[in-house]
Amino acid sequence: MSLLFIAVLFNSQIKLEITLIKNNGDKLTKQIEIKITNKTNDKYVIPIDTTDFKPFFNGENCLKYDLFSFRETNDLLFALAFINPENNLFNNKIYNDPDPSLLLHSSMKVKTEFKKEKDSANKTYDRSINRWIKDFGLNPNRNWAEMNHKLFSSVLFLEPNQEIVLKRHIDPLKLSSSKMHETGNYFYSYHLEKNVKYNFQLFYCIDKKMYEYLTREQKEKLSGYQLFSGNLRSNVLRWD
Questions:
Q1: Interatomic CA distance for residues 15 and 35, integer angstroms
Q2: pLDDT tens digits, residue range 8-30?
Q3: Domain range enclosing 68
Q4: Which of 157, 189, 208, 213 is a Cys-bridge partner for 147, taking CB atoms 3.0 to 4.6 Å apart?
Q5: E strand or H helix at 5, and its extent?
Q6: Could you tell me if 94 and 188 are in contact, meaning their C-beta atoms sit under 8 angstroms apart?
Q7: Is residue 138 part of a domain?
Q8: Residue 68 counted as domain residue
Q9: Taking the model in full, what pTM does it have?
Q10: b or e along 200-210 (b: 16 or more beta carbons within 10 Å of the residue's beta carbon)?
């Protein structure tokens, strides 16, 4: 029988660093390098969805491991936080677009197109979850399977003293909303003010209880690795 260890680490042991590698000449988009470094002599796995970013809401913590909260926050994404000149986390102007209230008053053509896009995305997602259930022989509990899919498909392997380097574009006007959420075709937006010099940084956290959504076979595949649990916080960069 293999043993699976869950390790709660300090940020100094698994290090998250960001570097600005391309400025497109405006404040709309940036390209950054994300470096995740295992500064220990142990092997770790850490499940991070690196496909997008989510907004950072003050008061977020790693205790949101139930399905409803997971759908709301898409917890495996990096959270992108902007810091205003007063050194406060800038989270009072985060919007969900398109605004549901505005959509209600849109033309029938806009509503129809949005519904088509949403239905198409939902069908694609449903097919992927159904295929996942079949491939892994999961109990067809839809909610559990969604959590399992997101968790296991996002696993990154970190060998001792290894670093993983990613290059990603950030568009503060279009951050991801969870594909698992019922409003999965909406996205979050930071409405940054002109002529204001913002800083930004990334956050990540995962609660150890998330690993309860792994199957026995999946845990066997991860044997020999410790499961990361805890918080990561990157360095701070200027946005402008």
A1: 8
A2: 444 458 999 999 986 656 557 88
A3: 5-99+152-238
A4: 213
A5: strand 5-8
A6: yes
A7: no
A8: yes
A9: 0.82
A10: bbbbbbbbeeb
Whether 79 contacts 190, CB under 8 Å: no
Q: Please check whether residue 145 lies inside any domain of the structure.
A: no
Q: Is 48 helix (H, G, I), strand (E, B) or coil?
A: coil
**Structural domain count of the chain:** 1
Does residue 126 belong to any structural domain of this protein?
no
Amino acid, single-letter form, for residue 57? F
DSSP for residue 98: S
**Cα gap 192→239, rounded to integer Å:** 11
Q: Which two tokens stand for residue 147?
A: 């959590």
In the three-class reduction of DSSP (H, G, I as helix; E, B as strand; rest coil), residue 228 is classed as strand
Which pair of structure tokens corresponds to residue 189?
């937006």
Could you tell me the sign of the dihedral formed by the alpha carbons of 170, 127, 119, 210, in that order?
Answer: negative
CA dist 110 and 33 (Å) reads 37
CA–CA separation, 148 and 150 (whole Å): 6
